[in-house]
Design brief:
By secondary structure, the protein is of the alpha/beta class. 22% of the residues lie in helices and 22% in strands. It is built from six helices and nine strands. The protein has helices at 53-56, 73-84, 103-113, 130-134, 142-146, 180-183; strands spanning 41-43, 50-52, 62-67, 94-99, 122-125, 138-140, 149-151, 154-159, 162-168. The strands form three sheets. Strands 5-4-3-8-9 form a five-stranded mixed β-sheet. Strand 1 (41-43) and strand 2 (50-52) form a beta hairpin. The model is unreliable at 10-27 (pLDDT under 50). It comes from Stachybotrys elegans. One of its GO terms (molecular function) is thioredoxin peroxidase activity. Thiol-specific peroxidase that catalyzes the reduction of hydrogen peroxide and organic hydroperoxides to water and alcohols, respectively. Plays a role in cell protection against oxidative stress by detoxifying peroxides.
């Protein structure tokens, strides 16, 4: 009789995250006018410096700009620069750029786009996509490309702690309706 090693069962690892959205017959329920901001902790410059946008907008109105990724082509060359260079930026109130990246990447990106830190735009990291998922503004960036869920490209006007206008790119990544020249109008 030959010796047989015991059979070892290997458990397959579950994905690190659930898909951002499975197939649905109903349209997406993106954030809409009148919605309050989710109370989610984001990070500015380091993991020790948290920012809750629901709390931050109690101090004044402004905008949240969502981008698919720091240092990506359209985000770095068109979308965020359209706000940095817009003549009405100073009138916009608080402006936050949010991306599904870590806080160190967001700090480096801010340093590249606004080296003198004169614009007042704050760059926040949403490393687990919890904030954009709560707004239903995430999409599956694919593990091979972006490593997981990403933020759609959007701009939200916030007044009195609530969303007063939405500018959401229909394909999640285009750069049209969320550009500063269409958002920062009177």
């Amino acid at each position: 009789m030959a010796f047989r090693a015991p059979i070892r069962r290997i458990a397959l690892a579950r994905p690190a995250f659930a898909p951002a959205r499975a197939f649905h017959a109903t349209p997406r329920a993106f954030v809409k006018v009148g919605d309050e901001l989710p109370a989610v902790e984001l990070f500015e410059d380091s993991p020790g410096n948290t920012v809750n946008l629901a709390e931050a907008f109690k101090a004044g109105d402004g905008y949240i700009i969502g981008v698919p990724g720091a240092f990506t082509g359209t985000c770095s060359s068109q979308h965020v620069p359209s706000y940095i260079n817009h003549p009405r930026l100073k009138e916009a109130g608080q402006v936050f750029v949010v991306s599904v990246n870590d806080p160190f990447v967001m700090k480096a990106w801010r340093s590249q786009l606004d080296p003198a830190e004169q614009t007042g735009i704050r760059f926040l990291a949403d490393p687990t996509a919890a904030f954009v998922k709560a707004l239903d503004l995430s999409w599956d960036g694919g593990s091979a490309i972006f490593g997981g869920p990403r933020s759609s490209r959007f701009a939200l006007k916030i007044e009195n702690g609530k969303v007063s206008k939405t500018h959401i790119e229909p394909d999640a990544t285009g750069a049209d309706v969320s550009m500063a020249e269409k958002v920062l109008t009177k």
